[in-house]
Amino acid sequence: MITKKAEYAILILAELAAHPDDTVLTSREIATRRSIPANLVIQLMPLLHESGWTTGTRGPGGGIKLAINPASITLREVIEKVDGTIGITRCLFSNQPCGNKSHCSLRDIWIKAQTNMLSVFEEASIKELARAMARDN
Amino acid sequence: MITKKAEYAILILAELAAHPDDTVLTSREIATRRSIPANLVIQLMPLLHESGWTTGTRGPGGGIKLAINPASITLREVIEKVDGTIGITRCLFSNQPCGNKSHCSLRDIWIKAQTNMLSVFEEASIKELARAMARDN
DNA sequence: ATATAATATAACCAATTAAGTTATATATGA
DNA sequence: TCATATATAACTTAATTGGTTATATTATAT
Asked: What's the whole-model pTM score?
């Protein structure tokens, strides 16, 4: 399952992407505007910084801003950064087919299904999402 | 996440489908041949019976056999029977977009990704799987 | 300088889910 | 009627999820 934290990370980035370049928002602003628990925004920021997507400035007047073009951030990257390796089945967390078989047709199906799912996340960028969400109502 | 139980249910049906029509196997035989905890096979059988996929005969010489053509059982049906409604995200367990928006573009992405995944399970039948697994090694 | 606004990090907790075990009831064929 | 088999429920155990709490650190406006 894709966790709430991954969803929150996506929303944080989308909120930043919804403003003009170099707009600085405080974590509290982001939390309020996107209905995310404030502490979780604070908790997630180091991950987003680590990936080079955002930078933070401390002190009064400080806040968070995007560090790169949100068109180059895919949902897949964000989800994997927050949730770790994705696996729709326990089987896929291992690199090996289970048991003593060298090949498993059921595993092939898991892989195909997961690949199909991931392709959607790979083709969706934060920028597109932010644009689409701006039209939501 | 698709659970082990769903996977076990698929393997039970695949094991039955790997034998000639009307072959009766005991739950213990199935458990041994597919490396499934014996108690779980027993636990899963009522679900499979309920769906009309299998029937069981008690007593000595009894066992389990397929009740319908395994080509007409899709992996999606089996997974949903065992795990209940599938949702790759908490959001998708609700019928409504969250918050007070009537539309949510992020939800659209979750739905699209999940649909892509499910289509693989919908196109895969127990019969095909059993045939493919027979060739595994 | 110092108070304050902000991020950074770690530790903790409650609820849920997953996986499997245990126990018991019920049916049936030899 | 006994052995074999399915049917059903209750119960552990461990991991995960979603979130809270607490504390440290940094930087700037005054």
From this structure: 0.93
